[in-house]
Design a protein that fits this description.
The protein is of the alpha/beta class. The protein folds into two domains: 167 residues, no CATH class; 69 residues, Orthogonal Bundle (Arc Repressor Mutant, subunit A), CATH 1.10.10. The chain is 41% helix and 19% strand. The protein contains ten helices and eleven strands. The strands form four sheets. Strands 2-1-3-4 form a four-stranded parallel beta sheet, with helices on both faces. It has a three-stranded antiparallel beta sheet with strand order 9-11-10. Strands 5-6 form a two-stranded antiparallel ribbon. It is globular.
Length: 264
């Protein structure tokens, strides 16, 4: 059995969960985040050039975009495949839509975590259910104790067609970003995160890492997973270039810089 996941963190967590359960299934991670950059077509060299220009991605950050050709070769050659994703997280949803487009009529099963709830401990020692946002946010215990792999089921022909139409529309729009609203993914402009970033700034100096952390927490307010820290930091640097934000320190690294609302 080959498990397909979207993102390195999700892949590492699921490997631990499978080993913990005594299973020898393999896990294959698709590490290119298709929620940002050009996707028509999702060519590495084009996406890398865009990420450098618009988000200041370093060569190290761009390394996660590589390996797509090997990924698809391994995925297509597997006999049994299970794809994990959530429609509440932009990276996973977009990756899954590309998967549906690439695989055509080939057989596979899907673990759709959208709307799935699992029990968790509360601060007062009690328990409550919480909705799963993405596979990456879970622990190996969460996966094992709830036997989430038992939720795998083949998609219907209608589902494949519906997902295919969604991805075809998004590829046609080829927007800078794709974001989740409720359980839908839509195209968004290059400035989609800018107001959120500015709302996390004051006229006092703050560590850029704290600002990015607050912005990521704010984006989770509606229980949707949007952009990661590198994407938001890239947009913050664009706001600095535009004179809307002051900065000091080494802007090449997130933790070595401070920012504030522009005093000019």
């Amino acid at each position: 059995m080959l498990h397909i996941v979207f993102g390195e963190s999700a892949g590492g967590m699921l490997r631990l969960a499978l080993r913990q359960a005594g299973r020898d299934d393999e896990v294959l991670s698709f590490n290119d985040d298709l929620s940002f950059g050009p996707i028509n077509p999702p060519v590495l060299i084009t996406r890398a050039a865009w990420a450098r220009a618009e988000l200041y991605f370093s060569d190290n950050a761009l390394s996660v975009l590589s390996g797509a050709e090997e990924f698809w070769h391994t995925a297509r050659s597997a006999q049994k495949r299970v794809v994990w994703f959530s429609r509440r997280t932009a990276c996973e949803f977009c990756g899954f839509l590309e998967w549906v487009s690439q695989m055509g009529r080939q057989s596979y099963e899907v673990v759709d975590l959208t709307g799935v709830e699992i029990p968790c401990r509360t601060g007062d020692g009690g328990s409550a259910n919480r909705a799963i946002l993405s596979l990456a946010e879970l622990s190996p215990d969460d996966v094992c104790e709830n036997a989430l792999w038992d939720r795998a089921a083949p998609p219907s022909a209608e589902e494949r067609q519906r997902y295919g139409r969604i991805w075809q529309r998004l590829c046609g729009e080829n927007a800078p970003f794709r974001v989740v609203e409720d359980d839908a993914v839509i195209s968004a402009s290059i400035e989609v995160y800018d107001d959120m970033l500015l709302s996390c700034l004051t006229t006092d100096w703050s560590r850029a890492a704290r600002v990015i952390g607050e912005a990521m927490a704010e984006s989770l307010g509606d229980r949707c997973g949007q952009a990661g820290d590198l994407v938001l930091f890239g947009r913050l640097r664009k706001l600095i270039d535009a004179g809307k934000v002051d900065a000091r320190g080494d802007l090449a690294t997130l933790r070595a810089s401070q920012v504030r609302l522009s005093q000019r």
